[in-house]
Amino acid sequence: MAKIKLTKNELKKQKDALKMYRRYLPTLMLKKQQLQAEIRSVEIRIRELMDEKAKADETFKSWIAVFGEKGIFTAGILSIRGIKAAQGNIAGVAIPIFEDAEFESFPYDLAATPLWLDTAVERMRRVLLLDLEARTLEEQRRRLDHELRITTQRVNLFEKIKIPETRGNIKKIQVYLGDQQTSAVVRGKIAKRGLARAAGGALS
Fold first, then answer.
1. Which terminus, N or C, of the chain has the lesser number of Cβ atoms within 10 Å?
2. Is the pLDDT reported for residue 1 higher than 60?
3. How much is the mean pLDDT over the chain?
4. Chain-centre distance of CA 24, in angstroms?
């Protein structure tokens, strides 16, 4: 802890600092609660997407196994051309928001391929969209987690260190200034009595 000056100016400085800490602490605590709530919401949505994707994957695999012909459906038949995302803001944190994605289908001969291939490509597109949205949400959670750690550190700093430390400084300065004032009064009385004695001796 830095050494403080035991003066009236320092007392004012410490009181102003205490007011500032008390003013900002509720805001930080509110931000912390908001971030925690948002992280819970994002985690719930990620779980929902992952469950939906798992079901879609399972259905897709079994569907292809039943209707598919070997060599017809390949992994490279559909690719992601680009991702459309917007920027959002939660508790002062910039986050990406998934909107859509553009896909590119590998050209295939409609006459030489079975009818189910179009449906398979569309189902694969749906699975990829779920995965892309989940990845965007993971990035949201990462950024919110980072901000939550910083906010929690600030709350702890104010609540457990700065406010108790400043209160202690104020008390220390007030005690010192009170002692100084008492000493000054005592010295004044002693000096007054001394002057009175001196005046009385001179008259006699």
1. C
2. no
3. 85
4. 15
**Dihedrals φ, ψ of 86, to 5°?**
-110, 170
What CATH number matches the domain at 25-162, 3.20.20.300, 1.10.287.3240, 1.20.1050.10, 3.10.180.10? Answer: 1.10.287.3240
Confidence band, pLDDT 50/70/90 cuts, at residue 15: very high
Structure tokens belonging to residue 111: 């006459």
Residues 162-190 have a mean pLDDT of: 88
**Token duo for residue 56:** 């879609």
Q: Do residues 42 and 141 touch, judged by C-beta distance below 8 A?
A: yes
Whether 32 contacts 152, CB under 8 Å: yes
- 116-152 CB burial, b ≥16 within 10 A, e <16: bbeebbebbeebbbbbbbbebbeebbebbeebbeebb
Query: Residues 67-113: pLDDT tens digits?
Result: 555 555 555 677 888 999 999 998 889 999 999 999 887 776 666 66
- Tracing tokens 């289908």 back to the chain, one arrives at 105
Domain ranges of the chain: 25-162
